[in-house]
Please model this.
Amino acid sequence: MGIKKVELSVENECRTSVKLALLAGRSYPWSFTQNDYNGETYTTFKLTSLGLEKPDVPDGMPLCIILTEPCSSLADFCYGGGDWCRFTFFSTDENCCPTGDLLASSDPTQVEVVDTAGGDVEVVEL
Model:
């Protein structure tokens, strides 16, 4: 079973906030979708075209999303504006979709700061 894409439930006004998305230091394409349900609009951030197989992810890998206004923190970006962010992993055949919540604290002592000025980033051209 491989990973096809990762999705996060995000705030509607945050569609312009993503400047870069990296998985294990590698850039992947991303997109947003909006769906209406019971008169409410819900927005999903999608990191797509991952094509990762289980041996590619033996112990997990970091996901880094560079954000700017109006949602410059993960806590602001994620739906509900709280300390949790709903995520879903999609398998390559989309038969298995584990979903959970990750800590998206607005408390700066709980957030890892990453220096994006140094190091090489691999860009994937599609």
Residues 16 and 32 are 10 Å apart (CA to CA). Residues 74-77 form the longest helix (4 residues).
